[in-house]
Amino acid sequence: HSALTQPASVSGSPGQSITISCSGTSSDVGGYTYVSWYQHHPGKAPKLMIYDVSNRPSGVSNRFSGSKSGNTASLTISGLQAEDEADYYCSSYTSSSTRVFGGGTKLTVL
Amino acid sequence: EVQLLESGGGLVQPGGSLRLSCAASGFTFSSYAMSWVRQAPGKGLEWVSGISGSGDTRYCADSVKGRFTISRDNSKNTLSLQMDSLRAEDTAVYYCAKDLATTALRCLDYWGQGTLVTVSA
Fold first, then answer.
1. Contacts of B108 in chain A (CB under 8 A)
2. How many CB atoms within 10 Å of residue B1?
3. Is residue B46 classed as helix, strand or coil in its secondary structure?
4. Of A50, A52, A58, B101, which one has the greatest count of Cβ atoms within 10 A?
């Protein structure tokens, strides 16, 4: 399975909303509900932000939300804050019983 | 508190072997699947391998199939990754991560800090 497709970078000003897309196929994103999103600050451990397409783990701000339409999943961050600046990765279960990540999106808060 | 502590990284020559370990604590280790994920310098995350909570089902990325073997010792709360026939492109930070589920590759809810593996002559 090839890596899922994400934009290399997105940016927004504090208080604004941004959306990161994650495009796959019917053999991964489109075929399963095991789609998740991770926040990664360089040098630190990645952090789970969304699981099963749209569920938030305990402790994750409700400013983060996830959705899916067809073969494309999306992560939306509302009310952008400086600490949201990080790399974001989507991931999906695949029909080959493996896990695939997206290429990652660098979020810059202007 | 869930804690995952990787060890075993270092410098190894191409064609060599290395064994990574991950000591887990703060949860019932045998109840959850576990995975290894890596990040090469300047690159994104890449899932490497996973194993069910009981250890009887293993999953592996094509890029390491036949060279890397994942295993676990539920009596010692330890996850391992045996890496053989290492290549320069295996150079990366390797993360140990806990799955939310027992058997399936659902999502990774806790991650370690990572251990660096460098493959170079």
1. 36, 38, 46, 48, 91
2. 6
3. strand
4. A50
Location of structure tokens 């940016």: A11
Contact by Cβ (8 Å): B70, B79: yes
A15 min Cα distance to partner chain B (Å) = 27
Q: Tell me the residue length of chain B.
A: 121
Can you name the residues that pair with A64 across neighbouring β-strands?
A77
The sign of the dihedral angle between the CA atoms of B114, A41, A1, A29 is: positive
CA angle at A62 for the pair A61 and A66, rounded to the nearest 5°: 110
How many Cβ atoms from other residues are within 10 Å of residue A17's Cβ?
Answer: 12
CB–CB of A38 and B45 under 8 A? yes
pLDDT tens profile B55-99: 999 999 999 999 999 999 999 999 999 999 999 999 999 999 999
